[in-house]
Amino acid sequence: MAGRCLRLHVAWSDAWSRELDAALGQLPEMETCSHDLYRMLARTASSTQKKFALVRDEGTPIAAIALRRRHHHWQFMCDGVVPFAGAPAAPGRLWDAVSALGVYVRVFEWDGPTPDRRLMRFVERSPHYTVSTRLDFDAYWAMKGNRDWLRKARRRTEALGAIEFEVGGGDAARWTIDQWRRKWTGDPMGETDATPDILAAAAHLAARGRYHAFRLLIDGAPVAGVNMFAQGTTLVMAQSYRDPRYDRAGIGVHLDERIFRWSATSPYEVIDLGCGEGYKSRWGDEVGSRTTFGLAPAHVAAARRAAGMVRRLVAGRRAAVEDDITLGGGRLAPCPKQKLDKAVKD
């Protein structure tokens, strides 16, 4: 792969261009993200930086890559926005193209073939859970020991008022995404940075029957929501939210139960629950794993490691200075920012 990458030419831009548009016409569409949706997301205003790369091999486009900045790395623009989508690329050339970019790209929970292990700078595999919608759910949940858990959540939720289960479209989806954003803004993972793209993708796909929004209402007011992508005969879980005032009642559990029962008579055969979180094993079965990894040339990876060591060193010195500045009796004194900054520099 390294030899192949040497022949590649990368043209960067800060905005979507006519050249990138023309290249899309020569590249196959991704299964879950049409060229129209990809182009629209590329043009959607964002609070975080986006960059675009047209990668050519001897003058022929092999990839049109849109990246979003996230903390100290780049990620695919579609990550966390459209499932199972990287960037439009010629068959078998995506990782060649990404490797040629000369930047550190973090790929999250990838479901397909991964690059050569020698090119990956970080590898983490997470268990992946799904559930068939054609099960006898009551028997399945009893086998998993969930029957009492579900019954309590159902009883407590129904005691809160008039309960309504809603299967909606764009407006319901926006409500859940907005509440999810408010809850998680400021979280170190930075997932809410992609909210404008998430909203744009939800509206685009809902208008084409490829996105479903489920909500639980109490006396007409929404209190919990789950959004899902529709990909063929599979539903893929996306953002979710529940009002914390009703956590003790188990409204999230009850909404999930309603969704699974709805799915049993739907055209969908599988619900993809995603990766990682322990509660997913209560609803579905582990069917494999997905891979999170970093991809970068050796010199970029080395520079990134060095920068990380400097950040950790500065953070460690700052913490040590804070510990050293005390009042009589051993209590920590408030440390003015200027004094702390000077001590770290010294």
What does this 3D model show about the protein?
The chain starts with a helix and ends with a helix. The chain has an eight-stranded mixed β-sheet with strand order 5-12-6-11-10-9-8-7, with helices on both faces. A four-stranded antiparallel β-sheet has the order 1-2-3-4. The chain is of the alpha+beta class. It contains twelve helices and twelve strands.
Task: Name the overall outline.
Answer: elongated
- The whole-angstrom Rg is 24 Å
Structural class: alpha+beta
Number of distinct helices: 12
Total beta strands: 12
Q: Which runs of at least 5 residues are low in confidence (pLDDT < 50)? A: 320-346
**Distance between the terminal alpha carbons, to the nearest Å?**
46 Å
> What integer is the average pLDDT?
87
Strand content: 25-35%
Q: Biggest sheet: strands, sense, closure?
A: 8 strands, mixed
Strand order in the largest sheet = 5-12-6-11-10-9-8-7
Succession of helices and strands: HEHHEEEHEEHHEHHEEEHEHEHH
Helix content: 25-40%
Summarize the structure.
The protein has 346 residues and is of the alpha+beta class. It has helices at 2-6, 18-24, 35-43, 94-99, 137-143, 147-158, 170-184, 195-206, 251-263, 280-283, 298-324, 337-345; strands at 8-13, 50-57, 60-70, 73-76, 105-110, 120-132, 163-168, 211-218, 221-231, 234-242, 270-275, 285-295.
